[in-house]
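Hello,

Following up on my earlier ticket. Below are the two sequence lines again, exactly as submitted.
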Amino acid sequence: MKQFSNRYIFIFSTVMVASVATLLSLAATLLQPAQERNLEIEKKKNILESIGVAATRGNTVELYSKYITEGFVLNSKGEPVEGLDAFTIVLRNEQKKPIEEQYLPVFRATPDDGERVIILPVEGKGLWGPIYGYVSLRSDMNTIYGVNFDHKGETPGLGAEINTSGFEGMFPGKKLFDNENFISIQVHKGGADPSDIHGVDAISGGTITSKGLEKMLYDCIKKYNDYLLKNRI
Amino acid sequence: MSDQEKEPMFSAKNFKFFTAPLADNNPITVQVLGICSALAVTVKLKPAIVMALSVTIVVAVSNVVIAAMRKYIPDRIRIIVQLVVAATMVILVDQFLKAFVFDVSKQLSVFVGLIITNCILMGRLEAFAMANKPWPSFIDGLGNGAGYGLILVIVAFIRELLGSGTIYGYPVIEKLGVYKAGYENNGLIILPPMALILVGLIIWVHRSRNNSLIEK
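Thanks for your patience. The regenerated structure is below:
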């Protein structure tokens, strides 16, 4: 290999870095609208899945406007806040604020069986990155109607199993409250007792993700405590 | 290019660039590269196959780019150049997937980072593409990706069958009714150490059948 002068090396690296930077920023800017649209569809699809409606990318928007009747925002005391769109609230940004200033989005939906459910978004930490999802509650504000979880980058086959129907299918029918006390849902390593109304099985090999999910449910839903107690039947 | 003899595109020599990494020069079992990602993605067959395909594409394309630039890359900063090319490729692919095939991009999420850090990628760029023309480098990339994928699929098949009782998501063990006879899935198999032990077993079998691989 022939020797290159220092001047050549400097010019080479400058040109390389500049062209790579241009290429990447061009790609990012040009593709952004399509990517944001995909993220919006993905969010609507996840919300729909939490009430058991399986949507495809094609019919998500249509089904969303059919089933999701309303979205509103609460403050930390459980009182409605006017003038905010529940769909555009980014939970991650809210969680960085002090608890008193956080906005809590709620969605209302009416699935095919006529049950009037509310859907609460949740977000927390898994092993490698964020995990998030939607929990829908029956009109008693206590019994879980359905859930949908997703993750940014949990290990496939281990932590990533939280978004399989096998795991999510254990949640419907579980209860959040014991009388007035907020219990949330626990994950049990080695399997939960089927009669346990607050417990589900943890994922083998995915203990940290499972525990993160348990903490996410507790932390996020507890903020709705006052609202849920006030509106329960 | 006049310093090298012109040869047909599908010559025996070029074909060997593809077949050698499948067995005698396998990136995992012989070169022992890319082990980290091999442990992470082999719990189920599906992610293993997705990962194998992604690595194959990225290695082949980066190989071509580096091989085309090889005479202009200053020796002293070649590793940085290789890294920049590989990382750019991966990010570009990721951006396009996110915009046009969102579902695939969701499945690849965790792998994108793993591809950049995959030693096979840097290993092939440094050892092959820096010294060869683009076409043989492309074949070398495909071959190494396939060799990597082969081991991934073997390990993932064993781990999914014994660890979760399924093959590509299909519940084989349950359909055969073996659970009723008291059989249980092996929880140890789905943990990373067992992947390492399985790779070790494959290396053992491979070397016992091919003595030339054993170091003196």
